[in-house]
Amino acid sequence: MSIIRAPRPEGNFYLLSKSISEDRRLSWAARGVLVFLLGKPDHWEISVAHLRGETATSAKPTGRDGVYGLLQELINAGYVQRHQGRHQRHQRGVAQT
To answer: Which residue has the higher pLDDT, 31 or 16?
Structure first.
């Protein structure tokens, strides 16, 4: 089977290092979340509720524990850092490359 590429868009896209999409330490799902996060603007705060909502209407929604598991996978691989303030109820994450 060969890859047939669609016409390239002229805007609204970004470059992604192949080392990210081919990182075998990550599951397919974690790679997808990472690509989604890296497409967000600088200083965008990660919300587990928001990430859950992204798949709410998909054929296979990801629940709260699933999202936390994917984020933990990205933390373990060094792509995400978790920061939580002393009196904050919500966690904030930073996707890094």
So the answer is: 31
